[in-house]
Amino acid sequence: MPYYIEHDFPIEQLNPLARREANAKRAIAMLHKWWARRVGCVFRTMILASLIPEEEWRRLDEEVQPADIDAWTALYYREHPKANPLIVKYLKDKVVLDPFMGGGTTIVEALRLGCKVIGVDVNPVAWFIVKKSVEPVDLEALDAAFERLKKEVAPDILKYYRTPCPSQTSEVLETSEVYHQADVM
User: Fold this and answer.
1) For the whole model, what pTM was predicted?
2) What is the pLDDT of residues 119-129, one digit of tens each?
3) Integer Cα distance of 135 and 88 in angstroms
4) How far does the chain reach from its first CA to its final CA, in angstroms?
């Protein structure tokens, strides 16, 4: 069964997106600079083109033409009702192996598409950063830990976050603390 990546990789559609993504500001999750984090859209497209058979791309291309989009756009952006079922059908139980994962671009993009992943790297720091970047976070436990930390250290450090206010007779809390208190209330 031939796959799309073997015959017709959508370079023209991908180039502008890759250029924008490569020049975008990085999220906090991409804090580390040790590895050259690759452009995610290229890897997402490679995964789609490698795992969805070419005949499905062709069929989808015909079905989305009245909507003035092509199969790649429909699958990449999930902008057509037939795109998600195709992604689920062909990617849900697939395992993507990245034996040299470095910054984890392949791992992140495969997870976004619903694949199972295996990432390996000789560098334990790379492995640890990617693992921590993609593992689920228990938000209630995280909030509880922050509250415990706040209770333990706030009395000692809160004085460093107060600023004299010339228009008032008392000191005010730093803006970030005020916003945090407003969010909690």
Assistant:
1) 0.71
2) 999 989 888 98
3) 21
4) 58
